[in-house]
Write a structure and sequence with these properties.
GO terms for molecular function: small GTPase binding; zinc ion binding. This protein is mainly β. It contains three helices and 38 strands. The chain has two domains: about 450 residues, Methylamine Dehydrogenase, Chain H (7 Propeller); about 55 residues, 2-Layer Sandwich (Herpes Virus-1), CATH 3.30.40. The chain is globular. It binds zinc ion (2 copies).
Length: about 550
């Protein structure tokens, strides 16, 4: 969430909540691969590319408070007002905590409660982070859980191919249990932040991602290079006495901001993504000099990490980027931004919220009337993840107003590799947007009297036509705002939509079994590090082959 809060029109004491809009790819197993978005085969479901923001019907009757994903990921976590998590997308390495399914449709998301994971009654999920193939959840009791790829300990468990069900990750410091409030995740590591502003990391140290000053690089059997793996959260000592309030991670780097607005960066530094003026990996958190003060207005207010870039918005709302964030010209691989530079096209915008997806960049800024305006750009966006409209280009080189979102108050964005979610306050403009899925096979007549006549009221979620007088109790007039039919209310919030998804069996939750305690050869593990969305790794720099393995270097 942005530090500069958006105007909140809700009058109750409820936390700010909204409804989910979705655009971009929904063909979860194929995203980022050839043939994505071509639709289903035979009787299978259609998983289209959505070229404009669509109302996500399945979660339309759930009050969502935050949405989470990764710029390198194809899965999402939405947290609702009751502290339940809703998960959907690609289930790579069982990162959704379920087994035997390749993906979970956005039309039939999984609901997870902290009590399902053994948390005490009353515990809520308060934060979540997604890596490429793993997920970290945070509870209101300060607990952390991880599921998914654990080849390098990124789920906080003894190294194994995957943690197939959410498993608790104890975070302790000097023998005391720490209360975690936020999480961030890269491809091969995770970061957690405690209520006192301490930062802990776990996973692979190969490029300094753990911020503990070492990669542990060494030659192992077969002349291969190995690096340290920390399977238990370790304290980032360099940030001692700083009260960190925000953490964000790209696939292999992290930004953290303290309560005064000083920004720290560490990890992989290809294309100068850390904005420190060089390409040397930072093995420990380093202060970004431009935002170190003393003038408070030039210090950080919001931070964001992209696949090969970083964003800092200062307290005046000025927007700065470092690294590679486009494909040609200044800011591309040939001439990345080696330090944080402002973007000319949006100089006049006061940035309240910034996000980066696979190839997309997003910001929310007040328009001339003070209404939040959503601005986006991204070269080579191919699945509709910019959501600019059916007849508009899918890709945009320069910052562009998202016209379909005009008049809609967006207050959170989760920008994934090929898909974007928005959290928006429902209003009349919102209700005019298309709904996903488009066709949910509603009954042809009123479900109560079975008559196809008169002027029935249509359910906002499932399109079923109900006569006002057939409802119990009957309604005298069309209700203002959203309306959900008795069937959708009975099915419970977040129930599946569409005949296909309603009939589908619910996926089974996985249960993690720790691997036997034997040393495995290093190359037994699939190396998550060498992923397509961060393909600069391993080509421009030394090949990261053969990392991993259970053998840990003894520290002197
Ligand atoms: Zn009727
Ligand atoms: Zn309905």
């Amino acid at each position: 969430m942005a530090t500069a809060a958006l105007p909140d029109s809700t009058t109750s004491k409820d936390p700010q909540w909204g409804r989910i809009l979705i655009c971009g790819g929904t063909d979860w197993p194929k995203l980022g691969k050839k043939g994505a978005g071509k639709g289903g085969e035979g009787d299978g479901p259609i998983n289209p590319d959505l070229l404009e923001p669509n109302i996500l019907r399945s979660l339309l009757n759930v009050k969502i408070t935050s949405v989470h994903t990764s710029c390198a990921g194809c899965h999402f976590v939405a947290i609702d007002i009751d502290g339940q998590a809703w998960l959907f997308g690609r289930n790579g390495s069982s990162c959704l905590g379920v087994v035997d399914v390749e993906y979970v449709s956005e039309n039939a998301p999984i609901r997870l409660k902290p009590t399902d994971l053994g948390a005490p009654a009353g515990t809520k999920f308060v934060h979540a982070a997604c890596g490429r193939n793993h997920t970290i959840l945070v509870g209101s009791d300060g607990s952390v859980w991880g599921a998914g790829a654990n080849t390098l300990g990124q789920c906080g468990q003894t190294v194994c191919p995957e943690v197939s069900g959410f498993k608790n990750v104890p975070v302790t410091h000097q023998g005391n249990r720490e209360r975690v409030v936020k999480a961030a995740a890269g491809t091969t590591f995770s970061v957690v932040l405690t209520d006192t502003g301490k930062v802990f990391t776990f996973g692979s140290a190969a490029n300094g991602q753990l911020g503990n000053g070492t990669t542990g690089e060494r030659i192992v059997t077969g002349n291969k290079t190995a690096y340290d793996i920390e399977t238990k959260p370790i304290y980032v000592k360099e940030l001692h006495e700083k009260k960190i309030v925000k953490i964000v991670s790209g696939p292999q780097h992290t930004l953290a901001m303290d309560d005064t607005g000083v920004v720290y960066v560490w990890g992989y530094n290809g294309y100068c993504r850390l904005g420190l003026g060089d390409q040397k990996d930072a093995l420990k958190p380093k202060v970004v000099p431009q935002f170190a003060g003393p003038n408070p207005s030039t210090m950080g207010a919001d931070i964001c990490a992209g696949p090969s870039s970083s964003i800092i918005a200062d307290k005046q709302g000025m927007f700065y980027m470092a690294g590679k964030w486009k494909n040609s010209g200044d800011g591309s691989s040939g001439s990345p931004y080696s330090t944080f530079r402002f973007i000319q096209d949006i100089m006049g915008c006061k940035v309240m919220h910034a996000r980066s997806g696979g190839v997309t960049h997003w910001l929310i800024t007040p328009d001339d009337d003070g209404m939040p305006m959503t601005v986006c750009w991204g070269q080579n966006a191919a699945n509709g993840e910019l959501g600019l409209g059916l007849d508009e280009p899918k890709s945009a080189t320069k910052p562009t107003r998202n016209v379909p979102l005009q008049g809609i108050e967006v207050f959170d964005i989760a920008a994934g590799q090929n898909t974007t979610l928005f959290l928006a306050k429902p209003n009349d403009k919102f209700s005019e947007l298309p709904r996903h899925p488009e066709d949910v096979q509603p009954p042809g007549a009123c479900p109560k009297c079975r008559k196809d006549e008169g002027d029935p009221l249509e359910c906002d979620k499932c399109d079923s036509p109900w006569h006002l007088h057939c409802l119990s109790p009957p309604l005298a007039e069309i209700p203002a705002g959203e309306w959900f039919c008795p069937t959708c209310v009975a099915a419970g919030p977040g129930s599946a939509v569409g005949t296909y998804w309603k009939k589908l069996k619910k996926p089974k939750f996985g249960v993690h079994k720790p691997p036997p305690q034997v040393a495995q050869p290093a190359d037994d593990y699939d190396d998550d590090f060498d992923d397509s969305s961060d393909s600069d790794v391993g080509t421009k720099r030394k090949a990261p082959a053969g990392r991993g393995g259970a053998a840990k270097k003894k520290r002197s």
